[in-house]
Fold:
Amino acid sequence: MKNKLSWLMVTVLVVVAAQAACMAQAQVQNTTTAVDTTPAAPAGGSEPQFGARDPRYRIAPSDSFDLTFPLAPEYNQLAVTVQPDGFVTLYAIGDVKVQGLTVPELTETLKRSYGKILHDPLVSLVLKDFNKPYFIADGQVGHPGKYDLRADTTLTQAIAIAGGLTEDAKHSQVRLIRRVGDKYLSSEVFDVKKMESSKGDLHEDPYLHPGDMVFVPKSTMGKVKTYLPGTNVGGYAPIK
Structure:
């Protein structure tokens, strides 16, 4: 009888222990599921955010576009030019602020504006003249200046387009300056010498965005050379 009671007690203890283990595992699973893995949002707009890789073009002063209404051609306007203050003047609705809008955003804005006088207007907007993408190369490059940004162009390709680096260039301190929003500029330094070496990694070669500036500073030796006599400078010898 004692043996039976002992086995019964052992069985009960095993069952209780198994139930406790199951409950603990369930709690762990529930706790893991409840963890929020979403990255924390940046503090209330205090830090500037970089733009997308392929940002849409935003309308600027001096741009022009054709505005047509397939179902109401009497409202068509061709070669509408954006004024220096960012406004355009349109038939029937007056002045509209268009600066800073993409073409889809402006199309939706005009649909809402003309929707006050037309029923569900069909609007077509085509940019005719606009600021073409560009980059600026300055400092110790062969031909400093402003260049059209055609297709995807990397930092090293932009330097090559601008005539390459001069002998006085500081290859390890090439600076890429980019506008971020309306109030901020980002500036990052790249070691082009290392990037183009046999052990370099061209995957680190960044793509340029429209409006970027590439600045190549002068090396220390290049600065000192300004004050050193050239090799072609004549010498003086006593006359005997």
